[in-house]
Amino acid sequence: MTARNAYLTTITSLAVRNDATVRLDEVTGPFDAETKRRLADRLAAMDPWHRYGFSSERLVRFLSAPAPDARRLLMIDGERHAGVAVVRTGWLAGSYLNFLAVMPEDQGRGIGEAFLAWLAEEGHRLGERNQFVAASAFNAAALAFYERHGFTPVAELPGLISDEETEILLRRRLA
Ligand SMILES: CC(C)(COP(=O)(O)OP(=O)(O)OC[C@H]1O[C@@H](n2cnc3c(N)ncnc32)[C@H](O)[C@@H]1OP(=O)(O)O)[C@@H](O)C(=O)NCCC(=O)NCCS
C-alpha cells in the first residue's frame, strides 16, 4: 500500500465484462482531499446530481461524512476511479444504498451489476433481511437497472429532494 492511498482498504475484486476486474476499496482513513475534490467535481457534473444542482462542495461534504455506519466505497480500475458508492448499514432491518455512481466512461461495463452482486453477498454475510435504494422517478435507466437486480419499488416519495421531483424507494429482500 502506498502513502498516496493509505486511506483505502481493498475489500474485493469485482469481475466485470470482458474478463476484466475492478478493485472495490473502502475509505477507511481520512479521505485524500484532492481525490475527494476531483470525484466531487465529476459527480456534480453528472445527472441526477447535476439536475438537482448539487454543488461540488456539497458532494465533498457528503463524501467526507465520518459516520461509522456509512461505508464509502470506491471502484478503482488501475489508477482510475471508475465509481463510488455509499452504503448505510442498520436501516429498516437491512441497509440503504445511499449513493451509487459509475463514471460515464465506465458505464455499461458491468461495474454496477458486479457491485450490486457484492452488496447482496455482503448483506447475506451480515444477516440483513432487506436492502433499499432510492432513485429519482425521472431516472428511468437507474430504476430499470435496480429492478433488473432484484429491487422492487415500494414507495413514492414526492418532494424528497426538490419540490418538483419524486423519488422512488426500492427494496430487495434477502431473507
Ligand atoms: C445506474 C448505474 C449505477 C449503472 O452502473 P453501470 O456500471 O453502468 O451498470 P452495468 O454496466 O452493470 O449495467 C448497465 C447497463 O448496461 C447494459 N449492458 C449489458 N451488456 C452490455 C454491454 N456489453 N455493453 C454495454 N452495456 C451493456 C445492461 O443491460 C445494463 O442495462 P440496465 O440499466 O437495463 O440494467 C450507472 O449507469 C450510473 O452511475 N448512472 C448515473 C448515476 C445514477 O443514475 N446513479 C443511480 C442513482 S440512484
Describe what this molecule looks like in 3D:
The chain has 175 residues and is an alpha+beta fold. The protein has a single domain, classed as Gcn5-related N-acetyltransferase (GNAT) (Aminopeptidase, 3-Layer(aba) Sandwich). It is built from 5 helices and 8 strands; from the N terminus they run ββαααβββαβαββ. The chain has helices at residues 33-44, 49-52, 56-64, 111-126, 140-148, and strands at 8-15, 21-27, 70-77, 80-89, 94-102, 130-136, 152-158, 166-173. It has an 8-stranded mixed β-sheet with strand order 1-2-3-4-5-6-8-7, covered by helices on one side. A hairpin with a 2-residue loop joins β3 and β4 (80-89). The protein is globular. Coenzyme A (COA) binds at residues 17, 46, 48, 100-102, 107-113, 135, 139, 141-142, 144-145, 148.
Tell me the layout of helices and strands.
Elements: E1 8-15, E2 21-27, H1 33-44, H2 49-52, H3 56-64, E3 70-77, E4 80-89, E5 94-102, H4 111-126, E6 130-136, H5 140-148, E7 152-158, E8 166-173
Parallel strand pairs: 5-6
Antiparallel strand pairs: 1-2, 2-3, 3-4, 4-5, 6-8, 7-8
The site of coenzyme A has 20 residues, from strand 5, helix 4 and helix 5.
